[in-house]
Amino acid sequence: MTLLQPVVAERPPHNPLPMPDPPPREPDEAMANFTHLAGTGNAHFLIQHFGRPDTTLVIGDRYLAPFPTRNLTGIRYPDLLIAFDVDPEAFRRSNAYIISEQGKPPDFVLEIASRSTGRVDVTDKRETYAALGIPEYWRFDETGTFHGDKLAGDQLEHGAYRSIPITTLEEGVLQGYSRVLNMDLRWEAGQLKWHDPGTGRHIDTFNDLKARLDQERVYSNRERDRADREQARADAAEERIRALEAELRQRKS
What we know:
Blueprint: H1 27-36, H2 42-50, E1 56-59, E2 63-65, E3 80-84, H3 88-94, E4 96-98, H4 99-102, E5 108-112, H5 118-122, H6 124-131, E6 136-140, E7 151-157, E8 160-163, E9 166-168, E10 174-178, E11 183-188, E12 191-196, E13 201-202, H7 206-252
Parallel strand pairs: 2-4, 5-6
Antiparallel strand pairs: 1-3, 3-5, 6-7, 7-8, 9-10, 10-11, 11-12, 12-13
C-alpha cells in the first residue's frame, strides 16, 4: 500500500487575496447539507460545546487548501470541518481554511451523502483528506444508499486511513467514537446526532430548543390557568365575606 504523506507547512505571512466562495451545491447536496447540518444548527451548538471560540473553527462550505491558490482544481470544500488551536481571524481573512496559514490541518472533516457526491466522498475525498493529514474523516448517509454505510469514520495512522469501529445500539442506532472530538457520532433513525459520553446527552439542535420552548409554554399556560382559577376562588371568597359582613350589619341594625 502506498502511504500518502501529509502536508507539513509552516505558518507564512498572510496571503492578501482571499479565496472565492465555493460554487453553489447541486440541489440534492444542498438539501442533504441543510437537513443534517445547517438546519439543525450543528455548527452553532458544537462551538458552544467545545467552549473555545477564539481558537476553534466549526465551519463548512469553504475551501480547504494546503496553501493559498487561485487554481481550484481538486480543492475540496467539506460539508463540515472542525479545527482546534487555530486562528479563526486568519480563516475569515482568507475565506478558506489554508493549512499553511493555520500551521496544521483540520482535526476533523465530515461529509454528508447525496446522489451527486456519494461516490466521490468514499473515494477521491478520502484520498485527498488523508494526503492533507486530517486525523479523522467521517461520512454520514441518511439511508446508506450513496456511501454504502449509514455511518463511517476513518482515523489516520502512519499516513493511511483505518476504519473506526461502528457499533449497533438499541433500536438500530449506529455509533462511532471520535477520539479527536471526544464525542460519539450517531445515526439515529436517519438523523445525525452528536453524543457527549461524559454527560450521556446529545448536543442540542434547533429542534431540541424548540421542543423545550414548547414545553415551557405549555407549563407556563398551565400555571397561568391555575393562577387564574386560584384568583377566581379568592375573588369568590372575598365576595362571600363582603356579603356576610353586609348581612351582619343589617341584623345588628
